[in-house]
């Protein structure tokens, strides 16, 4: 593998806005300075902006709640037409599961978030919400309890093209969010929390995205995956920025982040933390299941903090042989662990035994 040229690195990532940037700059005072940035992209590949859900001029608003026209989200899902907005009132919605088939929906929860609980039920044997429509955005919901007979249930199962999830809390499901394969689809996750998802078999995860065009995860908190990974992505392009992916003090996740088939992966200003209780010693894995034959395989890791609290040590970052280009610059590697075999990794990053000052830092809005 070869490092990316400096001119390419300078164009790779937009600096984020939440305060881990400042915290990283403080703990990186002894490391090489970070280059200025002006855009996101990888050489030879068109820049894909975050998916925008189109607005239908003639859309309706369907209201969900105890005194509303629709008592449950599933009732609104059955009535929804392309372009509608579904507003869900605060409160609990027990044993309610739904299949969303219309396109261009906006599903918005009130504040405080409505809690959709599976409570032993499932839609089509797949999970709590099966999203079959295209161009759907979900905002401000809490979902828990998704379990199915084959142990691969998800709070949200995305089967349509293009999906946005914001301000959501998905916890205690077999999978938090699970997508199928769609080479033209973009998945956007922003300011969400994924916690304690996984059936414990190692095959179910907090967030699992299949073979899609692009995954963007920003300002989110993914923690305590139950036996699986906090994040697993088979996307052609994965942009992971400003997140905390962590075991905390007692977690048993496998990888904090896994990109099993490589692809174009950009990691910027994240915190990856492996607890002393961690069974698997690798924090971030790239290409462990084999680099895809038809993909471009380039990895950029910039301004991240990798934390190992595992007494026996950890592997901070695994990179599969055959990766065409790698840039690892301005990161902190803290605690007992081994570094990737990349030229200049010690020169361009801070390597320390003690824990950094931002060890417990989370994105704004998370406790």
Strand and helix layout:
Layout: E1 2-3, H1 6-9, H2 20-27, E2 61-64, H3 73-79, E3 85-88, E4 91-94, E5 98-100, E6 106-109, E7 114-117, E8 127-131, E9 136-139, E10 142-144, E11 154-158, E12 163-166, E13 169-171, E14 175-179, E15 182-190, E16 193-195, E17 207-209, E18 212-218, E19 221-223, E20 232-233, E21 237-241, E22 244-246, E23 257-259, E24 264-268, E25 271-274, E26 282-286, E27 298-302, E28 305-308, E29 315-319, E30 325-329, E31 332-334, E32 350-352
Parallel strand pairs: 1-30, 2-3, 3-6, 4-7, 5-8, 6-9, 7-10, 8-11, 9-12, 10-13, 11-14, 12-15, 13-16, 14-17, 15-18, 16-19, 17-20, 18-21, 19-22, 21-24, 22-25, 23-26, 24-27, 25-28, 26-29, 27-30, 28-31, 31-32
Question: Could you characterize the architecture of this molecule?
Answer:
This protein is mainly beta and 367 residues long. The protein has a domain of 241 residues. The chain is built from three helices and 32 strands. It has a twelve-stranded parallel sheet, covered by helices on one side. Strands 4-7-10-13-16-19-22-25-28-31-32 form an eleven-stranded parallel sheet, with no helix packed on it. It has a six-stranded parallel sheet with strand order 5-8-11-14-17-20. β2, α3 and β3 form a beta-alpha-beta unit. The longest helix is centred in the first third of the chain and has 8 residues. The protein starts with a strand and ends in a 15-residue tail after the last strand. About 12% of the residues have low confidence.
């Amino acid at each position: 593998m070869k490092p990316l040229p400096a001119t390419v690195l300078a164009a790779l990532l937009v600096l984020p806005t939440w305060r881990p940037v400042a915290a990283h700059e403080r703990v990186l005072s002894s490391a090489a300075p970070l280059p200025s940035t002006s855009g996101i992209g990888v050489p030879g590949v068109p820049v894909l902006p975050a998916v925008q859900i189109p607005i239908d001029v003639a859309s309706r608003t369907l209201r969900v709640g105890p005194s509303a026209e629709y008592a449950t989200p599933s009732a609104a899902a059955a009535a929804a037409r392309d372009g509608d907005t579904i507003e869900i009132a605060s409160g609990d919605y027990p044993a309610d599961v739904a299949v969303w088939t219309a396109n261009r929906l906006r599903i918005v929860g009130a504040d405080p978030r409505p809690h959709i609980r599976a409570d032993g039920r499932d839609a089509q044997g797949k999970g709590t919400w099966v999203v079959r429509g295209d161009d759907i955005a979900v905002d401000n919901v809490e979902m828990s309890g998704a379990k199915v007979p084959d142990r691969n249930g998800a709070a949200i199962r995305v089967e349509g093209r293009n999906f946005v999830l914001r301000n959501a809390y998905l916890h205690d499901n077999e999978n938090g969010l699970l997508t199928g394969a769609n080479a033209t689809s973009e998945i956007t996750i922003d300011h969400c929390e994924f916690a304690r998802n996984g059936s414990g078999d190692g095959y179910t995860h907090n967030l699992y995205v299949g073979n899609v065009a692009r995954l963007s995860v920003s300002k989110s908190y993914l923690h305590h995956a139950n036996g699986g990974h906090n994040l697993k992505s088979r996307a052609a392009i994965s942009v992971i920025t400003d997140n905390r992916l962590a075991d905390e003090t007692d977690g048993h996740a496998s990888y904090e982040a896994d990109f099993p088939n490589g692809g174009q992966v950009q990691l910027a200003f994240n915190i990856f933390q492996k607890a002393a209780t961690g069974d698997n010693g690798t924090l971030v894995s790239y290409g462990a299941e084999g680099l895809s034959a038809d993909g471009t395989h380039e990895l950029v890791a910039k301004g991240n903090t990798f934390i190992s609290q595992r007494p026996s040590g950890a592997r901070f970052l695994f990179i599969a042989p055959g990766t065409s280009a790698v840039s690892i610059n301005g990161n902190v590697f803290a605690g007992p662990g081994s570094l990737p075999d990349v030229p200049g990794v010690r020169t361009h990053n801070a390597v320390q035994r003690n824990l950094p000052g931002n060890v417990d830092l989370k994105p704004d809005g998370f406790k």
